[in-house]
């Protein structure tokens, strides 16, 4: 009986990164790249069609499409293991990313041997947190949230503001959120602006951090549309 081949898709915005990772994986026994995705347009459909064992996913995609794609995969194809590639090196962010359902996390600028370790570990059904993850935080169950709470303001958002901000953080445009909730794009922009002012969050990177910390990847986007009707 032939050895099982672990099928991998690389989804990343940088063609040079995809090429370098392909060259690396081609040298590893028992692994095969079955797809490369450089744009998140149609990425989810491609992943479902190919049905790989592992997706190496760019978690910092402009527009936060990495978050949206992760959410879709978790719901539609929970058997697929995800290795998140990001620039987040702080322990609390790494732990929160792992809690969101990915099986591995690795820094974009990590050494080649760490990528090998991450892919090999996840292919064996284990979780890989990366060498940058503190030994004191090796268990995601023991992560300390106080440091991120000190860095991100947490005033009370209205239910409407929370729904809008969460949907936007998962990659939806103002227009898409408006269509989902049955309101105008101007209404969505108003709620987004008020929420951003309350949180003092004006950058995509900061919104991604806030989304990760609050566990906004844990339930389908559709639940937001059912949870509140925005007038």
What does this protein structure show overall?
With 231 residues, the protein is of the alpha/beta class. The chain is built from eleven helices and five strands. The protein has a five-stranded parallel beta sheet, with helices on both faces. Helix 3 (65-76) links the parallel strand 3 and strand 4 (81-86). Helix 2 (43-50) packs parallel to helix 3, helix 7 (159-169) crosses helix 9 (185-199) and helix 8 (174-181) packs across helix 9. The longest helix has 15 residues, at 185-199. The N and C termini lie far apart (61 Å).
The total count of helices amounts to 11
Taking the sheet with the most strands, its summary is:
5 strands, parallel
Per DSSP, what share of the residues sits in E-state strands of 2 or more residues? 5-15%
Report, as a whole number of angstroms, the end-to-end distance. Answer: 61 Å
Give me the Rg, rounded: 18 Å
Structural class: alpha/beta
Query: Uncertain segments of ≥5 residues (pLDDT<50)?
Result: 135-153, 225-231
Report the average pLDDT across residues: 78
Instruction: Identify the overall geometry.
Output: globular
**Helix content range of the residues, please?**
40-55%
User: Order of strands across the biggest sheet?
Assistant: 2-1-3-4-5
SSE topology:
Elements (H helix, E strand, L loop, with lengths): L5 E6 L3 H11 L5 E7 L5 H8 L3 E5 L6 H12 L4 E6 L4 H9 L4 E4 L4 H12 L22 H6 L7 H11 L4 H8 L3 H15 L4 H10 L8 H6 L4
Parallel strand pairs: 1-2, 1-3, 3-4, 4-5
Helix pairs in contact: 2-3, 7-9, 8-9
């Amino acid at each position: 009986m032939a050895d099982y081949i672990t099928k991998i898709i690389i989804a990343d915005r940088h063609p040079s990164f995809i090429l370098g990772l392909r060259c690396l994986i081609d040298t590893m026994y028992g692994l095969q790249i079955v797809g490369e995705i450089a744009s998140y347009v149609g990425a989810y459909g491609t992943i479902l069609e190919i049905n790989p064992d592992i997706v190496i996913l760019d978690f910092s995609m402009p527009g936060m499409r990495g978050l949206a794609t992760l959410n879709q995969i978790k719901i539609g194809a929970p058997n697929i293991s995800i290795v998140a590639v990001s620039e987040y090196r702080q322990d609390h962010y790494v732990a929160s990313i792992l809690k969101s359902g990915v099986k591995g996390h690795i820094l974009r600028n990590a050494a080649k041997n760490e990528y090998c370790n991450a892919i090999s570990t996840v292919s064996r059904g284990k979780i890989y947190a990366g060498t940058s993850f503190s030994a004191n935080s090796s268990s995601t169950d023991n992560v300390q949230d106080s440091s991120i709470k000190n860095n991100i303001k947490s005033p009370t958002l209205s239910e409407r503001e929370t729904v809008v901000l969460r949907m936007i953080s998962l990659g939806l445009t103002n227009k898409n959120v408006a269509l989902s909730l049955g309101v105008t794009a101007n209404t969505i922009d108003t709620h987004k602006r008020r929420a951003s002012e309350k949180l003092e969050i004006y950058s995509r990177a900061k919104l991604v951090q806030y989304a990760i910390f609050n566990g906004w990847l844990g339930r389908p986007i559709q639940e937001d549309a059912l949870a509140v009707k925005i007038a």
